[in-house]
Amino acid sequence: MRSGRRSAWLMWLPALGALASCGIPTTGVVEAGGPASGVVPTTRVYFVADGALVGVDRRIPAPVDLESTVQVLLKGPSPAERAKGLTTLLPPAALWVRLTSRKDRVSIRLSAVPGDSADLAAAQLICTTVAAQRVITPEAEPLPVTVTSPGGLETWGTGTQCPRDPGA
Predict the structure, then answer these.
(1) How many CB atoms lie within 10 A of CB 124?
(2) What is the per-residue pLDDT across 17-44, written as a single tens digit (0 to 9) for each?
């Protein structure tokens, strides 16, 4: 008699398993675009329009660092941005920049003089560097930035003169 109860119990086991299942059928691989890539880092670079700084969001190769951000700035505005009147006061290809970051400041040395609008050209570098610092360490206050021309003329700033995002 005992074996009869055991076999009756074993007959109900598959039925209980079917009742306990969730009812969702299995599927194969579903193609739905490319692999997940995460968030592409962006920072703000500053160009000039009508004698004033204008911030433009740019994608930066990960991870964001000061040097790569300044290199993006030195490439100048895109054709679409130029069509909107944006320009740069930084000299083209002949310019090289040496950027050093210490615990109390960021220093940028230029190989060429930016020209008549040296202060506004330096402000492009200062604001772009401060914006990158805000992406790199959002919880910290950005370090002051000093831009030095080949003749030794220094322009410095902390980002207070930089235009902010309209939503900030």
Answers:
(1) 25
(2) 555 555 555 655 555 555 555 677 888 9
